[in-house]
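Run log, item B.
One chain of 328 residues. Sequence copied directly from the ordering sheet:
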Amino acid sequence: MHRTVALLVFSGVQSLDVSGPMDVFSEANRFLPSEDHYRLETIGVEHGTMPCSNGLSLQAHRHYAEVDDAFDLLLVAGGPALVRQHFDPALYRWLEAASARAASFGSICSGAFILARAGLLNGRTVTTHWNDAAALASLCPSARVESNRLFNQDGKLYTSAGVTAGIDLSLYLLAQHHGNEVALHVARRLVVFTQRAGGQSQFSPFLTPQLEPASPVAQVQQYVMAHLGDELTVAVLARVAHMSERSFARTFARDAKLTPAEFVESARLDAARVMLENGQAPMKTVAFACGFHDAHRMRAVFLRRLGVTPQQYRANFGSTRLATQPGG
């Protein structure tokens, strides 16, 4: 069964808000039978060529006034000016009707502001780029704006955080439609994180594909995240899973697509990134809290995995610096 995906675009749109989701669903067609292919379309707010915020130009397939389709998924892309940018009331009326017809709808990044002005976020739980969350809450006081989520689902409404989070949302939707294996193949093709969880920090990478919560591997993952400072050897984790060490190691590698040791290191790295992004704790404190035991070992992992030291990471992504950066 073909699924139709449409993205609403406009002058000043963030190009990655469009190309990211489009590439996810386009790449998925490589792994799906022809009868299950996604049909992708861009819908223009204006006629003709529209410049993106980075200078590229887009030519939409159709103008919104020509569209009365019932899409499976209708997404509104974001753009740096949308916090203050207004469109013709006719667009908002069209979007309200098109969203009602769609099986699901939503926004990428600041595209949530277009949905809000169309009255589609009233009373809903949503997210957007962290830097624009307060402005969205002010625009739509009845909405619950969760600024520290990568994406959020409220019924058939899906909203995502800044820019690349649109890829995370699209991978999540792809997994819902066709399973985790297809989403994993697409993530590998695009060389992105397999999937970041919607409830995680907007800067924190998800570590493995989605798993059934009751599975032994998922339970071990949750245990690791709750006990980062403890000894987390294969023997310890196998006991948590109630499995032999050999069977556990084989099952974990098969289901999580990485070894237990790799998962533990990634989980500790992820936790350290969050601490560095959101606080000013000394490096020794961060290292101990996240299970690295000393700052030298944490520094070595950062250099090997990210190519920067923890100090450099904090300088680039810490809350003090990020508070000065504009959204998109």
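Observations after the first pass:
- The longest strand covers residues 3-9.
- The chain has two domains: 3-184, 207-320.
Flagged for discussion on Thursday.
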